[in-house]
Amino acid sequence: MSHPDPYGSEPRGWDRAERPVALPWPEQDLEAGQWSRRPTAGPELYADPHTRPYADPNPYDERGRTVRPDDRDRFDDRDPREDDEPGRYDGPPFDGPVRYDDDAGYPTAQLAPIGAEIAPDPEPVIEPEPPSGRRTKGRRRASVDRPATQQLGTGRAGRNLPAAIGVGLGLGALIVVPLVVYPLAFLLVLAGAVAVGMWEMARAVRRSGAHPPLVPLIAGGVLTVGLAWFAGPDALSLGLLVTVLGTMIWRLGDGPAGFQRDLTAATLIAVYVPFLAGFAALLAAAPDDGPLRILATLIAVVLSDTGGYAAGVSFGRHPMAPSISPKKSWEGFAGSVTAAALGSALLLWLMFEVAPWWGAVFGVAVSCAAVLGDLAESMIKRDLGVKDMSNLLPGHGGLMDRLDSILFAVPTAYLLLAVFVPVVN
Fold first, then answer.
1. How far apart are CA 423 and CA 290, in angstroms?
2. Euclidean distance between the first and final Cα of the chain, in Å?
3. How far is it, in rounded angstroms, from Cα 282 to Cα 414?
4. Taking the CA of residue 282 as centre, how many other CA atoms within 13 Å lie in the half-sphere pointing to its CB?
5. DSSP per residue over 100-147, as a string?
6. Is 425:287 a contact under the CB 8 Å cutoff?
7. Between 183 and 88, the higher pLDDT residue
8. SS3 294
9. Which pLDDT score is estimated for 23?
10. Is 89 within 8 Å of 65 (Cβ atoms)?
């Protein structure tokens, strides 16, 4: 069955006779005036379906704007100088083919007049992405001609391990040599450490807006340590009281603005640094075996730090306090306690003839106090928005970054050794 030809029975292709096609615009050979710019309404206007009230042979005015016939009168009699709309074309009329441009007044290429040459779309310019963060001071961006700066060896714990070991050995020698050669010289080392630690703390708390007076703090801290060395525990408390009162009186001279905030910061520094360090003076000033007590405490702290570092790097999987110190793990804490307990059990038995299990208790207590001291300073630094108290010690940060665990360990060691190894005289 044959389907009807949709094109009819007329011949196709070139054999088909030409048929006039009705154009949507008027023929150009019409007499002038037959087509006006604005058609007059009437019945003959709507006779032709191609003729509509808004049909116009030239829908653009002299300025290239698309307008309706009803709107022509508004623009024809208007002075071009009165046109102050931004982005409107004020140039000469489009008499011939022009090149399409975004600034010519056409929002899109489809609205360009017939015969206008359309410019191709420009290739998009890809801007380089800005760096995600500011480069650290002293570093440069790597390229083919300039390779990346080689950083010093940094361990998984975030330290420059060779520098940290070298500085640690130097600090250990600075403590051990005075204790062995001349114990009174250890007091000078302790006073200097207290002064530097208080300077670092005062410098750090200024980031929070507090300005504790540094001169009375350092003077009172050195006095507190000296009183503890020569006069015992009661003088240690007296030195703390004198430091706080002296700081208060000094601060009153600067006026009442921020007095409470500055005094609170000064009290925190006086308790945290010289008062806790005064227990090291009490340990070292013990008759007969004072240097041994200091050495036993420091060795227990070193064993705790070393065991925690080794266990944390090797087996650390579960964070201990991620909001305070993300790098501390429970595996590292177990390594700290184990190393300090085993080492102290042997050390106290050799030094003071204390039973090994009491020595292990001493090691566990000192290790827990050292970890708490480290976490306490980490919380202070995080609250202040600093990574290290200073950059005084390569590989360690500031001196307080090394004293944080010791400051909490010495009061614990003083109390336990006063029980396990009674002080003679």
1. 9
2. 130
3. 8
4. 24
5. --GGGT-SSGGGSPTTPBPPPPPPPP-PPPPPSSPPPTT-----SSSP
6. yes
7. 183
8. helix
9. 53
10. yes
- For 18-33, write each residue's pLDDT tens digit: 555 555 555 544 444 4
Handedness of CA 384, 386, 388, 389 (dihedral sign): negative
Contacts of 237 (CB under 8 A, 6+ apart): none
Q: Whose structure tokens read 């361990």?
A: 155
CB-based contact 270:240 (threshold 8 Å): yes
Reading the block at residue 320, the tokens are: 């201990």
In tens, the pLDDT along 97-116 reads 444 444 445 555 555 556 55
User: For residues 340 and 298, what is the distance between their CA atoms, to the nearest angstrom?
Assistant: 11
Give the angle 159-411-369 at the CA atoms, nearest 5°. 45
The total number of residues written for the chain in this structure: 425
Q: Does the pLDDT at position 216 exceed 80?
A: yes
Do 272 and 220 contact (CB within 8 A), yes or no? no
Confidence of residue 181 (pLDDT cuts 50, 70, 90): confident
Tell me if residue 179 falls in helix, strand or coil: helix
Split at pLDDT 50, 70, 90, the class of 201 is very high
Task: Tell me the DSSP string of 153-173.
Answer: P--TTSS-HHHHHHHHHHHHH
Asked if pLDDT for residue 346 goes beyond 90, the answer is yes
Confidence of residue 362 (pLDDT cuts 50, 70, 90): very high
User: For residues 105 and 89, what is the distance between their CA atoms, to the nearest angstrom?
Assistant: 5
Three-class SS of residue 182?
A: coil
Helix (H) or strand (E) holding 320: strand 319-321
Q: What is the pTM of this model?
A: 0.61
Quickly count: other Cβ atoms within 10 Å of residue 80's Cβ. Answer: 11
User: Which among 333, 331, 296, 334 is positioned nearest to 316, based on CA atoms?
Assistant: 331
Question: Which is higher by pLDDT, 58 or 359?
Answer: 359
Assigned token pair, 408? 């909490």
What phi-psi label fits residue 228: left (phi over 0), alpha (psi between -120 and 50 degrees) or beta? alpha
